[in-house]
Amino acid sequence: MIKITLKGGTVKEYEAGVTAAEVAKDLGAGLYKAACAAKIGNKLVDLRTPITEDCELAILTFDDDEGKRAFWHTASHLMAQAVQNLFPAAQCTIGPAVDGGFFYDFAVEKPFTAEDLVKIEAEMKRIVKEGAELTRFELEPAEALELMKNNKFKTELINEHAGKGEKISFFKQGDFTDLCAGPHLPDVSRIKAFKLTSTTGAYWRGDSTRDNLCRIYGTAFPKASELDAYLEAVEEAKKRDHNKIGRELHYFCTADVIGQGLPLLMPKGAKLFQILNRYVQDKEENEYGYVMTRTPLMAKSDLYKISGHWDHYKDGMFVLGDEEKDKEVYALRPMTCPFQYNVYLSEMHSYRDLPMRYGETSTLFRNEASGEMHGLIRVRQFTISEGHLILRPDQLEQEFKNCVRLIQEIMTDIGLINDISYRFSKWDPNDTEKYIGTADMWNEAEGLMRNILDDMNMKYIEEIGEAAFYGPKLDVQMKNVHGKEDTLCTVQIDLMLARQFDMTYVAQDGTKQYPYIIHRTSLGCYERTIALLLEKYAGAMPMWLSPEQVRVLPIGDAQSEYANGVLAKLKKAGIRCTIDERREKIGYKIREAQMEKIPYMLVIGDKEVEALSVAVRSRSAGDKGTMSIDEFVSLAKKENDEKTLA
RNA sequence: GCUUCUGUAGUUUAAUGGUAAAACAGAUCAUUCGUAAUGAUCCGUUGUCAGUUCGAUUCUGACCAGAAGCUCCA
User: Which nucleotide is nearest to A206 (CA to C1')?
Assistant: First the structure.
């Protein structure tokens, strides 16, 4: 007999060799029916796994993240089976669970169409009705290769696993067998509600030089109502898409003749940019000891050769001129680093001068691949709150922490602090081509960063191969309405580029030393942040970020003089406001202001003129009644100055 | 760059191998109105370039642009 400790600390005894499924059944029929996978200790296992020794056991259902993934993963096998039945020539490759569902990649002659998806769904329904059990079995690599000999993709995977001396595990349901590590549901019939959402291209193993596969995305749930709720939530989220709302509300637009990835900020977008920019610059200068630079938007290729960009990033740069023909070739800058380094290089620095904190509102140009552009989130020209800190090694920790603190303060003020996550982006030691410097330097830089992050008790995920070519990064990540994650801000430790540029300081002992460098952004890329703010607030910007904060709405011409007086008072108080003096009904003017999501409307009629007051309407709370002009001005000013987010 | 899809007025949407429709927006006129749409009149369009055709917005191709995904993202 073995002792199994369950959730909540209950201990039960079972025969050795009992499976997790059997334990679940023993605990309750409901739990058994809902079980998707299990966890023994910290190890995720299939429900069929026999348990041979004392352990902690958790039965995972669809409500657990890992249970969901097993559910979706099984759904992907179900889909693969349906595809195999309908398109026998389609070769299966891989099909994992992802956030919100699953996909499966197939090698096919002709990509699937929307009609094909409908047929595949119908076939899946038929299979579910039959209700095949899934069974797991293992083979020696040679046997596995024999079984999958007609599938070059599976063969490649088997050979890789075999190289590690592993047995090869398979899952089989009905007549469909797939190479897979699991875990899986015991039975496909549990997958009651599913939808195939889209079909797209994908590369084998994510490598653009290899086979182009056809991917089908889908999602699945135990209940139809859950599926409906999910699909509705996805639709709702899309309504907040900055690319839609930002254009509708006239924050930005694009023009075919100007080019891809080159959005135009309209007056409202430009105003929001200015609000954020002034706020960031003031904060950096007044609270964090930055000095500003203003450096050129382009440079000779020589500069990028020193920085390493010419070797590591030339494809991503807009080069002006022809290297073959022209004596000198220029390129638009894809980053600010070497420009600010040259500011540093222009004079001698003592250890007493450090840290030097250079900030710049910096416009950059990156020649992104044509399929990459997305609204304001991925563009070819953008402006970031750039900064480089030149430091002595002993200053690294403090300065790094301050960079993180600055970011956190800004994220708090603009209301995104609870929407961001942190990523520790490391180099890939197996892909040294992409990086400069030695393994020792990388280990040192990453060790320094890890210590600081842990010292700050920061929660972060680690990602290999996401580092900059010159150093590790702490990336501040945020998801857009489509669930796609992008980097908002970054703080990077660079022990390498000071050497490339021969940047030095004179130490206490008179020797020349190489400084450490921190590359960082505080608010990140303005365009991207504006995009994510639009999505966060569905266009209804908090007062302090609203391009137009108050609109004065006189009911008729008779109130014009008084209304303009109110406008002047607001302007004097620094409130961004306009007046709508058109001869329209008040309901019409209100509707427009409401749809433009202006925080406050001030209705002015004879009563207000008489009482020297204003009738306040808020976009969220509606008619708030009348108050004196001064009362409203101080209320508006307070909300603006305190950066109220509600 | 790759896969799939899309492109009709400023915007949202309709229709068609044979003169392209509506709403909103805009302009003009009238209306001076109390918390989400006053009325009338006018204005304006098939992304671009080729091809097929007597005739193309419709079919085909290329290009341009947009969407989702892949790849990429210093």
Answer: B71
CA A463 to chain centre: 14
Centroid of chain to Cα A220: 24
Condensed to tens digits (0 to 9), the pLDDT of residues A362-378 reads 999 999 888 888 999 99
Read off the pLDDT of each residue in A93-107 and give the average, rounded to a whole number: 87
ipTM score assigned to the predicted complex? 0.91
**Separation between Cα atoms, residue A503 and residue A512, nearest integer Å:** 9
Residue A114 has pLDDT above 90, yes or no: no
pLDDT, one tens digit per residue, over A328-340 is 899 999 999 999 9
In Å, what is the CA distance from A95 to each residue of A47, A82, A103, A352, A507?
Answer: 20, 13, 5, 58, 57
| Nearest residue to A309 (alpha-carbon basis) of A285, A326, A273, A334 | A334
Closest protein CA to C1' of nucleotide B70, residue: A202
* Cβ–Cβ under 8 Å, residues A523 and A383: no
Nearest nucleotide (C1') to the CA of residue A207?
A: B71
Distance B38 C1' – A588 CA (angstroms): 10
Q: Provide the mean pLDDT of chain A.
A: 89
Q: How far apart are CA A201 and CA A109, in angstroms?
A: 12
Q: Which residue is nearest to nucleotide B37 (CA to C1')?
A: A588
CA of A619: nearest nucleotide by C1' is B36
Give CA separation, A199 vs A46, A112, A113, A603, in Å: 29, 7, 7, 52
Q: What is the pLDDT of residues A434-466, one digit of tens each?
A: 888 899 999 999 999 999 999 999 999 999 999
Strand B bases contacted by the protein (CB, 7 Å): 1-5, 11, 30-38, 47, 64-74
- From the centroid of its chain, how far is CA A138? 38
CB A215 within 8 A of CB A196: no
Average pLDDT over every residue of A320-326 = 80
Query: What whole-number distance in Å separates Cα of residue A20 and Cα of residue A55?
Result: 11
Q: What angle do CA A153, A156, A160 make, to 5 degrees?
A: 145
Interatomic distance A114 CA / B59 C1' (Å): 21
Q: Positive or negative CA dihedral for A264, A268, A269, A275? A: positive
Of A107, A84, A23, the closest CA to residue A58 belongs to A23
**Residue at the smallest CA–C1' distance to nucleotide B71:** A208
Which nucleotide's C1' atom has the smallest distance to the CA of A480? B68
Closest by Cα among A576, A581, A586 to A550: A576
C1' (B16) to CA (A255) span, angstroms = 29
